[in-house]
Design goal:
Elements: H1 2-35, E1 37-44, E2 47-52, H2 55-67, E3 78-84, E4 88-95, H3 103-110, E5 113-115, E6 118-121, H4 128-135, H5 139-145, E7 159-163, E8 166-167, E9 171-183, E10 187-196, E11 200-204, E12 209-220, E13 223-236, E14 241-248, E15 265-268, E16 271-274, E17 281-284, E18 287-290, E19 296-298, E20 303-311, E21 315-321, E22 326-336, E23 343-344, E24 349-353, E25 363-370, E26 373-375
Parallel strand pairs: 10-14
Antiparallel strand pairs: 1-2, 1-4, 3-9, 5-8, 6-7, 9-12, 11-14, 12-13, 15-18, 16-17, 18-25, 19-24, 20-21, 20-23, 21-22, 22-24, 22-25, 25-26
Helix pairs in contact: 2-3
The structure holds zinc ion.
């Protein structure tokens, strides 16, 4: 009996101890629960990044980082929206105080750079075009990544962005911007057989028009990633130009031994020279092309023979009147093959090289005149 009472006492003691442990456990967990505080957890794409205590300060850090990409956006930009590429969630949680991070740490995580920009430094002989080709990067990409560089003005040492920096949190700013741009004018070309081939006469001057172009732009992490035209509005219509283009074929110099009108070697140029016979310095109004006696001489272009015959100084000579007031003159021939009033075609044989008149050897003297003045034959041959 005594024994059983003692046993009962022991059982009660054990029960009390067990109950005590049980109750203290509840107390600890209750205490732990009480020690937890209200905080805010930032998750990126569903992954928890960190927890801070001050929600407003966290939102402020995120907003400030996002807004830093707005500072270079033009003032006249419209519908400006800055968005993160990633899904950022801030949720209220209860955590123990020691799991919180400071706002400074939070800011470092939010503004972290995953990969720094790839920069190229210009070396001697580089151009945008050559750099793009050498590094296999589209020229448009280089231009987009370096909006402040003038492709015509790069120097040794100029830094060119090849690949933009890649932050951990990507910010895309989209906006619309409207700009006034030129509208180029069209040119109508009219063939004109009264003008030498290669010559052009502006009949009507063209005038660029203008238009308002609205672009939709996307700037990713500070660099243009997309540009699309949303709207175009013509303000001033362009005025087309009209140009007459000569089609009259002429002969021309094809080599140092073929001057079109004759073949041979240049023996005296157009301009001032010492006269080979008198020794007096005087103006030479044409080209002397030394050539074998009897070499054919051809008409510079279509025209009408205005003079053909003999002169003591010119020897046997031909003058041909062409369209546009141009006259060509051929002197010192051995033989004249056309007569005054005859019309001639471009390249038609009109005579042969000789040394008649005031001449020191077998050659063709060729001159070009317009309205009574001598012109530089090189402008025509
Ligand atoms: Zn001459």
């Amino acid at each position: 009996m005594r024994r059983s009472r003692k046993l009962r006492k022991e059982v009660i003691f054990v029960l009390i101890v067990i109950a005590g442990i049980f109750i203290s456990n509840i107390t600890i967990s209750a205490y732990k629960e009480i020690s937890k505080i209200k905080a805010y957890q930032m998750s990126v794409d569903g992954k928890v990044w960190f927890v801070v205590q001050d929600k407003l300060a966290l939102e402020n850090i995120i907003e400030t980082y996002k807004s830093s990409y707005l500072k270079d956006i033009k003032e006249n930009a419209e519908q400006v929206v800055a968005k993160f590429d990633q899904d950022i969630q801030i949720t209220e949680v209860r955590v123990e105080k020691d799991t919180l991070i400071s706002l400074e740490e939070a800011q470092i995580k939010i503004t972290a750079i995953e990969k720094e920009a790839t920069i190229y430094t210009v070396v001697s002989g580089d151009s945008f075009w050559a750099i793009a080709k050498k590094h296999d990067i589209p020229l448009a990409t280089i231009i987009n990544l370096n909006p402040n560089l003038d492709p015509e003005l790069i120097f040794v040492g100029t830094k060119i962005v090849f690949e933009p920096k890649d932050p951990v949190l990507d910010v895309v700013v989209s906006f619309q911007t409207t700009m006034l741009e030129d509208i180029p004018y069209d040119t109508e070309y009219i063939k004109d057989a009264s003008l030498y081939s290669g010559s052009r006469v502006v009949v009507k001057k063209g005038q660029e028009g203008s238009k308002e172009v609205t672009y939709g732009m996307s700037i990713r992490n500070g660099y243009v990633s997309e540009t699309i035209v949303l709207k175009e509005l013509e303000k001033v219509a362009p005025v087309g130009s009209v140009i007459r283009v000569g089609t009259m074929r002429t002969l021309s110099k094809t080599s140092n031994s073929n001057f079109g009108v004759v073949s041979g070697q240049l023996s005296s140029n157009y301009g001032w020279r010492n006269d080979p016979i008198s020794g007096i310095r005087k103006f030479h109004n044409g080209l002397d092309i030394a050539s074998n006696y009897g070499t054919p001489i051809y008409s510079y272009t279509n025209g009408t023979v205005s003079e053909a015959g003999w002169d003591n100084t010119k020897g046997y000579y031909v003058m041909i009147q062409h369209n546009g007031g141009i006259k060509t003159i051929y002197l010192h021939m051995s033989k004249v093959l056309v007569s005054k009033g005859q019309s001639v075609k471009v390249g038609q044989k009109i005579g042969q090289v000789g040394s008649t008149g005031y001449s020191t050897g077998s050659h063709l003297h060729f001159s070009v005149m317009k309205n009574g003045s001598y012109l530089n034959p090189w402008d025509y041959l």
